[in-house]
Each structure stands twice: as structure tokens, then as C-alpha cells.
Amino acid sequence: MEAAFDTESSGVASANSPQPCLFPPALAPLIRERLPDHPALVRVSDDTLAELLTTVFFAGLTDEEGERFPIRVAFVGTNFEDVILPAGDLPSSGPMLIYRWSALGFTAPRPFALEELVKLAVVSRSERVYTKVGLRRGRLEILGLTREGNNGEGDPYLKVLAPRTGDMSIRCGREHLIDYERGAVVNTGDNVVFKRGAVRRTFEEAATALGLHGRGVDAYVDAVRALVREMTEHSRGGILVIGNENGPSVPEWGSYSTRYDTPIAELLKHLNGGPSGDKPLHPGSWPTHDLRKMLRTAFEVETERCIVDYGACTAMDGATILDRNLRLRAFGVVLPVAHDIVVWETDDAEGTPARPFDLTTRGARHQAAATYAGQLPGSVVFVASKDGPVSCMFRKPGAHDVVLWRFGLATALRTRNKPGTSHARR
């Protein structure tokens, strides 16, 4: 079991203190706080938002003919457009090959009800397909199905998912805003690691050395973040290593070494420009508009395929090792365990040691991950427990010890009533 540290300023409850049990409507104020100006929430009352969350949650507890499917809702607010294009894209006269959202609308809206969501979950089993829910005349309605395409920052829709029984996730684009598990909010502290600081700089330097620039560097970091999330989705735990070289160290015993697969970084070069792709495949800037749309879609699909496949490899016991090109080098790797590795837990993005981290309270997976990070400075090692929490281990080149960031700690939700803001109560 993952231990938690007790620090009032962080809002994280200690492992021995009872967790307050939160009900879904209590998430509404937190969503408002994190998305104060989101277009899907304009003219949406807190009561309506609470109804949305509660219905999705209880639909996630319900099965259809003895089988349960994840509930995926895309809440669009009052935006009823069938197609949402990427920012700056041009309308196409031909088939719609690239989009942020593309809807299969119903001729007449369906009632927003638990039974409807459960039935439609059978149809929306693909991870890209959602039930489209909007607000008409002050009432929630199901408008159809909608497919997510090339989608990232600035997503106009709010995604509300019940991926497992009793769990819920609120997302916007690639961002996990809130993960709610077993009556508690989970702190997705990966923002500290991926948005700034020592680990992000390591990824940025790797991307730049590979010829990526600007948006391509951000896409590289996003790809690593997506790989980590794939590792958490299968709930089996795992170790994911992002090496700092093209030929990372892979133990010869007990592993499945791979000869070749498409490096994700190479795909990102074609999408965002770089030595392998003279210019990025931005369809709006070229006369051959539809052809470039098709090419871009193909590269995006292949990138997503690699991320999903590599994430699936982490479900096997042992480590999954990628080089800095984000090419899969091996999986199921049995890592050695050393007993002289010193690990410090850190709270800030730069990795300033805050408190000793006792590896003896963890299993072999954490000890092996710490050993790899300690013996190969500059490599970033993510380790996930079976019950969800994720740690990031990293030893800066020139530093003596490994530092560790922890994601996914259950936190007490502090509801703050702001002037002029009413919160839903049920």
C-alpha cells in the first residue's frame, strides 16, 4: 500500500487519518475553480453540473445485460456544432479527415438519464467515442455520439468519464483535471513534473537534440505523459523508463528485447517539422489541403497506436524501456535491485530533497525502479502501483541521490466559497 505523508499545507491526508467521503456533486466547485472560463460551462448552473456528475457516476455502477462498459460523456454546454476543427484549420470540401470533434447527431434528442447512458456505453466502447450531452432550454439532453480526433489544449468540450465502478475522471483535451476514486479526489501531481522543472527540461533537451522545436517539443512531452497515463489505465502497475540516450542499458536476462518499431519522436517530426519532415503537416497552409490532411491523420493515428501499444507493454511484470527517440527497446525487463540507493521525496519541480523516502516500505518494483534511476543519471523512471498511485524517479547528472515525485495521492477536497459564486448542494 502506498504511504501518504502528513502535511497540512499540501492538503494531503496522512495514511492513518480517515479520508472524508465525497459525493460527486462536491466536485462541481473544484471544476469551476480549475476551469473558470471554460466555454462548455457558460450559462450552466452548479445544480446542472452536479446533475451531470451524479448521473454519470451512477451510470458507471450499472451494467447492461450483466456486462459493464465504461461511461464516456462529452459535455458540450450550448455548443451544438457537429464538427469542431483544430484551431486555424480550414473547412474541407471533401471528406472530413481531421477534426477535434465530429458528431453523429440524433434526429431528436434523447433524455439525459442513467438508463440511456448505460445503453449507449455499449456503442461507445471505442476510447475515442463519447455520448454527446448538451444543455437545451435549461435541461440536459443527449444529442448523439461524438468522436474525438486531434484534440489537445483548449478543448471546447468537457469530458466526464466513469472508467471503472466507483471511479470518475474529469478531463479537458489531454489534461486530467480531476480523478475521483473511492469517494476521494486524487491529486494528479504530474503537472509539477511535466509542466516545469528538472524532468521537463530533460525531455525538452532530448526533443531539441532530436530536431524538434516549439510545438514539437511540447508534443514530445505530451507523448511521455500519455504513455504514463496508459500505464495507469490497466491497473496492473508497472515500470516505464525513458532513457536519456539512443541505446539505453537493457539487461540481457528475463526481458523481451525488440529490434525495431517506429520511434514516436520520428512521427512527431513529420507532424511538427524537423530534419525528417521539412515543414510541419499543417493542412491549412498548403494548396494540397485534403492530401496533407490525410497524411497528418495517418501520422497522428500511428502515434496514438504506438502510445497505446507501449502502454500495454507496461502491464507485464518487469520494466518497459524506451530510448530518447521514444522507441520501444524492451519490455518485461527484470531490473537488478541495489540496496545502497538513497531516495529523497520532493515537492517542487526542481527536485529539491524534502524528506527521506524509505524504500524498505515498498516492494521490489519500487526498489528496482530506484536502482535503475540511481545507476543511470538522466533517465526518467515512472513506477505505478496496482492501486493507481504513480511515482517519478530521477537522478540529475552530477547529483548523488535519486529524487522522487508522487502522483495520485488521495486528497481532502477543500471547498472554498468565493464571493458571488454559488455552489451546488444536494
CATH topology of the largest domain: YojJ-like (1
Estimated radius of gyration: 22 Å
Strand content: 15-25%
Which regions have little confidence, pLDDT < 50, spanning 5+ residues? Answer: 1-17, 410-426
- Alpha-beta content class: alpha+beta
The CATH level-2 architecture of the largest domain is identified as 3-Layer(aba) Sandwich
Give the number of helices.
9
Order of helix and strand elements from N to C terminus: HHEEEHEEEEEEHHHEEHHEEEEHEEEE
Count of β-strands: 19
Question: Whole-Å distance between the termini?
Answer: 33 Å
Shape: globular
Largest sheet geometry: 10 strands, mixed
Return the average pLDDT rounded to an integer.
82
Level of helix content?
25-40%
Into how many domains do the coordinates divide? 2
Q: Could you give the order of strands across the largest sheet?
A: 2-3-5-4-1-6-7-8-9-19
CATH class of the largest domain: Alpha Beta
Keywords:
426 residues, alpha+beta, YojJ-like (1, 2 domains, 9-stranded mixed β-sheet, globular, disordered N terminus, disordered C terminus
